[in-house]
Specification:
Blueprint lengths: L1 E6 L3 E9 L2 E4 L3 E2 L5 H13 L7 E6 L2 E2 L6 E2 L11 H9 L3 E5 H12 L7 E7 L3 E7 L2 E2 L19 E2 L4 E2 L13 H4 L2 H12 L5 H9 L3 H25 L4 E4 L6 H14 L9 E3 L6 H12 L3
Helix pairs in contact: 3-9, 5-7, 6-7, 7-8
């Protein structure tokens, strides 16, 4: 049995997994943010409650592990940030620990059990509070040993002119320290920034998306600009990786019409012309982080 965790800055989600298809999810517990001992105790309490002997812990987390130093970057959980987290947790828990980025886990879940089944190259995308991604090729996660591959949300590549007719946008500041990142521009918060800039009104991403689906002109303008900005970089990534399916998770993926519009624009811009949907809502909508952690945990052989 593997114990899986999906760890964010607010809550720890846990599950007991006998296989990627057989997962028993557990009640959430609050994430201890500043006390590493309390963090370990929270994991250990769940592990100790397992109904069978545990062979491994597999964790999906918002952070990224540097493949050289093995240190994790996870700014929203200070007690973990900068640690050699796998080694520290293995020592504290007394068993093997596998840690993967949450977007990588989404990609692996979709490859194994979701929209990516039957595809050699799967690029899993998160469009939600932030923008992220993970790449799976021939069943292997590119970031299987850590790293930043797939992080298409960061880098100053967001178009400054977009929409029909074109409008000039500011380079929105990003939490990574740069300006003009997709994470700051086409995420849920980015949608709200675009709408505020274009329409001088405050609306949540959910309200904007719903208004767009009802044909409201201001929301329609915002979505026109946002999807235009999103489609170019995503088409380039598809050209670069050869991905034949792009499952999308995160809060914005709950709007099937929005994903369909992004798909239409992306397919207009890729070198290979697809006669079927390419960018699609992910199918692993219930706890994809836990599912991905389970898929990765059972695929590891050591």
């Amino acid at each position: 049995m593997i114990v899986c965790f999906d760890i964010g800055g607010t809550a720890i989600k846990g599950a007991y997994a006998k296989s990627p298809e057989e997962i028993e999810t557990l009640p959430r517990v609050a994430t201890p943010l500043t006390d590493f001992g309390a963090f370990v105790a929270a994991l250990k309490a769940i592990i100790d409650g397992a109904p069978e002997p545990v062979t491994r812990v597999s964790i999906s987390i918002t952070g990224v592990i540097d493949p050289e130093s093995r240190k994790i970057t996870v700014a929203n959980i200070p007690c973990l940030h900068g640690r050699q987290i796998e080694a520290d947790l293995e020592a504290a828990l007394g068993m093997p620990v596998l840690i993967s980025n949450d977007a990588d886990c989404l990609a692996m879940a979709e490859y194994g059990l979701g929209a990516g089944r039957g595809h050699r190259v799967v690029f899993g995308v998160i469009l939600g509070t932030g923008v992220g991604g993970g790449l799976v090729v021939d069943g292997r996660l590119i970031n299987s040993d850590g790293g930043f591959a797939g992080e298409w949300g960061h880098g100053p590549v967001s178009a400054r002119f977009a929409g029909t007719p074109e409008v000039e946008l500011p380079a929105f500041a990003c939490g990574c320290g740069l300006k003009g990142c997709l994470d700051a521009t086409v995420s849920a918060r980015g949608m709200e920034k675009i709408h505020r800039f274009l329409c001088a009104e405050e609306k949540s991403s959910e309200e904007i998306t719903e208004a767009w689906q009802q044909g409201e002109p201001k929301a329609t303008r915002t979505i026109d600009v946002l999807t235009d900005i999103t489609a170019g970089p995503l088409a380039m990534l598809i050209n670069t990786t050869g991905a034949t399916i792009v499952p999308v998770g995160g809060g914005l993926s709950r709007s099937a019409p929005l994903i369909a519009e992004i798909d239409r624009l992306v397919r207009e811009r890729t070198l290979k012309k697809f006669d079927r949907p390419l960018v699609v809502p992910g199918l692993c909508t219930i706890e994809p982080g836990l599912v991905g952690a389970a898929v990765l945990g059972f695929s590891r052989r050591d």
